[in-house]
Amino acid sequence: MQNKSTSHHPLWKITLSPATITLIPVAVGINYVAKAFAEGLKLPVWLGSLGTFLASMLGGPLAGAISGFTNNIIYSLTLSPMSGVYSITSIAIGLTVGLLFARGWFKTKKCILLAALVIAVISAVISTPLNIIFYGGQTGIVWGDTVFALLVGHHFPVWVASFLDEFMLDILDKIVVAYLAAFIYHQLPQRLISFFKKVR
């Protein structure tokens, strides 16, 4: 009987096709512009993973992970020096989106919501210790940090307050980004989508 181990699944290919390599800088550009836009308007979301979502959906987990990582490094060199610290979070987001998308988690509105919840939890778990180490547990978003200050003021452990601060922002951000990415994906020409599926 043929071995159906996931280790041989196309999702886990180490090499990237020329098409996927071309996709990555586009995704990085989308991430960069979306994050700068959100920061410029002081929105309660980051939007900086939109390109990562799209890269993962079109090119697979590895493409998304590289897109997220690259964007954090570039952003840290231009607009926000500390952004590079969170590159590990972006890698995890890219991998998670790609795996969930391959398993059909972006096909219905309910599934998209569940996918956003899973991604938000993973993002918050990874980002919380980074927030504690570099920012005393805060995120830099005013209304989230207000919750942090309130919880700390009521003698909650810093890590609990920090996680809830991060998660509240992450869940809102990932819901917005997940639905937006799914909408954009479904507006793309089928020929383009099929092209990436063939070369993956």
Characterise the protein shown here.
- Keywords: Kinase, Membrane, Transferase, Transmembrane, Transmembrane helix.
- The chain crosses the membrane at residues 12-33, 45-66, 86-106, 113-135, 141-164.
- It comes from Limosilactobacillus panis DSM 6035.
- Helix content is 73%, strand content 0%.
- With 200 residues, it is mostly helical.
- It has a single domain (19-199), classed as Arp2/3 complex 21 kDa subunit ARPC3, CATH 1.10.1760.20.
- Helix 2 (50-59) packs across helix 4 (87-102).
Descriptive key words:
disordered N terminus; mainly alpha; 200 residues
Strands, total number: 0
Q: Radius of gyration over alpha carbons? A: 17 Å
Give the strand content. Answer: under 5%
Structural classification: mainly alpha
Order of helices and strands: HHHHHHHH
* Number of domains as seen in the coordinates: 1
The multimeric state of the shown protein is: single chain
Total of helices: 8
Distance, first to last CA? 25 Å
Protein name: Signal transduction histidine kinase, LytS
GO molecular function, one term: kinase activity
Transmembrane segments: 12-33, 45-66, 86-106, 113-135, 141-164
Keywords: Kinase, Membrane, Transferase, Transmembrane, Transmembrane helix
